[in-house]
Structures are given as C-alpha cells and as structure tokens.
C-alpha cells in the first residue's frame, strides 16, 4: 500500500476510500494485515483519479466506467460505448428528437444513435451556433467532420492492441485527457497560421 | 429597443445593463426618449451573451474582448490575439517556464510565445497526461498537430474577409462555439470508426 501511495501520489486515506467503495480492487493478501498491490492497481488508481479530478465525475459515474473496464465478458466495443457514455458533458438538448444532430450525421453518412450521449452534445453545439446567429452550413460541417475523423482514426488505432481489441481504460483516459490537448493545439494553430500577418 | 429585445431573445433589463456597462454601444437618438438600434447592436448583443453564458466570462473579461473588437485602429491580428487571450480556460501551470509546451511547439516548428494563454493551456494538458501515466510521444503529438492544423487553417480562412482581414467578433464566437462542436464530432467519429466492430 505504501508503494501504491508513493507511486500514484494519491493520499493513503483516498486510496482506502476507493478500496471501500469498490472502485479499486482489493490487493492480494500477503499476511494477516498486509496486501500486495501491482501495476493493475496503479493503473486503476490513475484512472479513478482522472475521472474524479479532471472529468469531475461523481462516484456513481466513476463506478459505471470501472464496471465497463472490468466487464471482460462483454464485447470490448460495447463496454467501451458504456464507459464513454458515462463521461461529461451531460445535459438534455431542447428538442429530444435531436433534429440538428440527425440531419448533420445523416448528411455525413455517419451513425445516428440518439441514445449515444455525444449525439445530444452535437445537437446542443449546433443549436448554440444557431442562437448566436452563426449556424453551421454544410460545407463547414464537412470540413470539421473530415479533419476530426482523421484525428479520431489515429486515436482509435492507438488504443487497440495487436488483436484489434480496444483498451477501454486507455480509450477513457484518452477521451478525457486529450480534449484539453486538442483545444490548446487548435488555438496555437490559429496563432501559428496567422503568424507573420501581425498576430503576436 | 423592443425589436432588439425581441430579435435577440435577451431580456430588456439585461440589454439596459449592458448599455450602462458600455458593453453595448448606445443607440442613435431618434427622439427625446427614443433610440434606434441596428444590426451592429444585435451582433454585439449576441457576442456578449455568448461570452457570458457559454464561455462564462466576467464582465471585466467581456470588456477586454469588446475593446479589442472596437479597437479599429489596431492591427486586426493584434486585436484578435488580445480578444482570444481573454477567453478561458485560464489557470497557471506548475512550471512557469512551460518546458513541455516549449519542447512540443519547437519540435513542431510552431511559434512558442509563453505570454499567449493557449501556451499555458498546452503545458497543463501535457502535464496532465504525464501525471496519468500516459505521456504524449512525438509521433502522437505530430498526428494531433497535423489534423488540428488542417482544421485551424479552414477556420482562419472562414473568418477573413475579402481583403484577408480577420473579423475579431467572428473569430471569438467561433473559438467559443466551435469547441463543443469539435469535441462532439470527435466522440461521434470514434463511434463511427468503430461501428461494425460491435460498438453501439
């Protein structure tokens, strides 16, 4: 346990709390008051920490993710869908029929699944652009979708193992931790693209 | 004023507050108690609304953006840099030297400007990945940067007028409102890329 606390940087009381809550599997008993923890525990601890501190999930939401990670009987892609569905942003769009998201995804030839949380997220983003008086036209939508798809293909490939199976844990961490990376790189690319045209 | 309230959907009391705070320019007096508002006012009102409600800016931060939009004497790219610098996320990285961001941007051959807020945003994103035990390697960084740059080039072109000058207002709205769009499309692209491999 001491090594786990030291290597993860997570306080002992927090590690014990996660153990009690079942978010971290118990160690292997190595004596009456001792247990051994391995790399699996360290990885799980980091996952739970990122979900709580970066993604801001509640314990119930963390449990949904952890359950999907541990559910090795399930198809890996089905488990992945469940885990990603537990991640924020949550929030209901004004129109439950998701008309903007449906039209956008159909025009792109992509899967339209109203139950997938990112579909409602797209609906809210498109509605926000309309409200601001700058609705997204079809050309801009296709431009965004094409660039983002290239990125997503590389990301999916990066979380698949040699057998083509995805690591649910790696996919969840990547979804949460790569979002701020992408947004930062985008603003820096704006700066770089306009550099030399006067922008500092 | 009634038309402005109706077309923008912003309550009259809020419009008056923005006028008093100088975030919305005064209308042109058309009588002792009447003023006329035009499209400029409607656009400004939508901008202020998005900055307050979507981006969560304080009034002082909104004023920095509005000042940059109104500063027509300034180079447009310089004004744009100032306006974008007022947008969240804010927050200081652990190491003010921004060593991770510097190394990343230098390896990409991009501008490294420690005073530009997105540079600190990149530093925090890279440090977060390290802490989670999944640091970004050079290949992944180049992959992200290449896809995001293609997207950023299209976005910069979309906010430039015929003379190649950027609209600061359009760039600010796009930065705030296109972020949720990009994140939603990315998650949907993950779903679409893995569709048929079992993921719902």
Top keywords for this entry?
63% helix, 200 residues, mainly alpha, elongated, 4% strand, homodimer
Structural class of chain A: mainly alpha
Mean pLDDT of chain A: 88
As an assembly, this protein is homodimer
What is the CA-CA span between the terminal residues of chain A? 50 Å
How are the strands of the largest sheet of chain A arranged? Answer: 1-2
Number of distinct beta strands of chain A: 2
Element-by-element helix/strand order of chain A: HHEEHHHHHHH
Number of helices of chain A: 9
* Major sheet details of chain A: 2 strands, antiparallel
For the largest interface, the chains and their residue counts are: A-B, 81 and 82 residues
Concise account of the structure shown:
The structure is a homodimer of 200-residue chains. Chain A is mainly alpha-helical and 200 residues long.
Question: Would you mind describing this structure in some detail?
Answer:
2 copies of one chain form a homodimer. Chain A has 9 helices and 2 strands, in the order ααββααααααα. Chain A is mainly α. In chain A, strand 1 and strand 2 (34-36) form a beta hairpin. In chain A, helix 3 crosses helix 9 (168-194). The longest helix of chain A has 27 residues, at 168-194. The radius of gyration of chain A is 21 Å and the shape is elongated. Chain A starts with a helix and ends in a 6-residue tail after the last helix. The relative contact order of chain A is 0.09. At the A-B interface, helix 3, helix 5, helix 7, helix 8 and helix 9 of A face helix 3, helix 5, helix 7, helix 8 and helix 9 of B.
Secondary-structure topology with pairs:
The structure is a homodimer of 200-residue chains.
Chain A: H1 2-8, H2 12-20, E1 28-31, E2 34-36, H3 39-53, H4 59-70, H5 76-85, H6 99-108, H7 117-131, H8 138-158, H9 168-194
Antiparallel strand pairs in A: 1-2
Helix pairs in contact in A: 3-9, 4-5, 5-9, 6-7
